[in-house]
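testing teh design pipeline on a random one, pls ignore if ur not involved
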């Protein structure tokens, strides 16, 4: 399997878009300013909702490591995301108002 470092970066951004209910990353930002921002170490912030756990956001951050060698293998990344989301997937509610929620009535702590 061929690994491309941009694949992990893109996957992290795709996850961010999904967990932020379709928000656009870096909206309206000039491409040159975006490159400077990323070169300076800035990354997308954690989506503020109950569906995006710290573990999920940590995986996103791993995808955005500056060094491609520090990014997870894509196969490991997919396995990790599946392991984190499958237990709660039946309880995720995606409503028409573009928000994510967890149905806490069906989750036992």
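output:
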């Amino acid at each position: 399997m061929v690994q491309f470092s941009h694949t992990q970066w893109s996957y992290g951004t795709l996850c961010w878009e999904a967990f932020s209910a379709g928000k656009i990353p870096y909206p309206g930002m000039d491409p040159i300013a975006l490159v400077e921002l990323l070169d300076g170490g800035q990354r997308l912030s954690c989506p503020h909702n109950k569906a995006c756990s710290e573990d999920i956001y940590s995986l996103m951050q791993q995808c955005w490591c500056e060094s491609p060698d520090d990014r997870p293998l894509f196969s490991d990344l997919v396995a990790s995301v599946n392991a984190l989301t499958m237990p709660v997937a039946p309880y995720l509610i995606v409503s028409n108002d573009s928000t994510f929620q967890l149905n806490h009535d069906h989750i036992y702590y």
